[in-house]
Amino acid sequence: MKTDIRALSKEALRDFFVKNGDKSFRGNQVYEWLWVKAARSFDEMTNLSLAVREMLENNFVINHIAVDKMQRSIDGTIKNAIKLHDALIVESVLIPTKSRTTACVSSQVGCSLDCNFCATAKLKRMRNLNADEIYDQVVEIDKQSQLYHHHKLSNIVFMGMGEPLLNYKNVMKAIDKITSKEGLGMASKRITLSTVGIPKMIKKMADDDVKFNLAVSLHSAIDEVRSALMPINNKNNLEDLLDSLQYWYQKTKRKITFEYVVFKNYNDKLKDIDALVAYCKKIPSKVNLITYNTIGEEAFQTADKGVIHQYVKILEANAIIVNVRKSRGDDIDAACGQLANKMD
Ligand code: SAH
Questions:
Q1: What's the domain count of the chain?
Q2: Atom 12, ligand 1: which residue's CA is nearest?
Q3: 26 C-alpha to center of ligand 1: Å?
Q4: Based on the domain organization, do 129 and 258 belong to the same domain?
């Protein structure tokens, strides 16, 4: 089997050429073709001789992703079904607002967590995405941003399929490439990683001195409610989560964003709001309230509008920043929690 050339670092590529009797800078040229110019074949690498291109062809493959299907929502959101080299499918979304475009990318094929309200959780976790498969999604969405909105992608959120902290190494490698001048050159502060909240990995990120933003899917600040929504909370409870977030804040000085879906009958009581306020007071944070997007499960419903207002009023009265997130792309099942490879 030929090696995937994109799994090689720049140094490894340089070494390869030296070992094969060529100059090391040839490695730089190929690296630029692969990562800056996003070449899909060796034939495109026109500043290399035919002999070099043939030599590469004989040794390597360029595994790349392809947009298999694309759907546009009436609100301009684009959902892409992305086919990987082994024919598995993930989804990536372009979310436009007036002033910016955001890419929502996947980190795993399916998901191993069982959040009861999430459509992706119903899919089996098949495998982790490689760093380049994550990076390529961003490249594709950046192209769509330029085509439809005439400017480059402004933000990236790791809020697609999968749990990014369970594919730590590849997600970090992809982010390095996204922010590198030899990749897309995007600013780290425009990237947000969203997690169910795995304390050990949150501490590791803080130790690794990452520069992007952290969002945590909280959904309840009461252990038994959170465990009923997200079984992972049985193993990683709110206290351990808080401990890791305090560690994160100490090291990075960056506020945490809590994502919080307000569900009817689960977290729509005053005691739920009070618990959230108390939790937020223990850690510099802000709250994004999300309405529940249906996934065809009758067990869950979005809370009444009045409840959301009440959340906003009480959080603001306690000087906690709160945003109510409008659902985007829900007509094409592209909204939060709806990604489940359901494209016609
Ligand atoms: N595994 C990571 C990344 C996925 S992000 C995480 O959980 O954070 C997807 C976001 O959408 C999470 O905040 C998730 O809790 C939320 N979500 C999942 N299902 C949803 C639904 N049906 N409606 C609204 N939000 C949902």
A1: 2
A2: 217
A3: 44
A4: yes
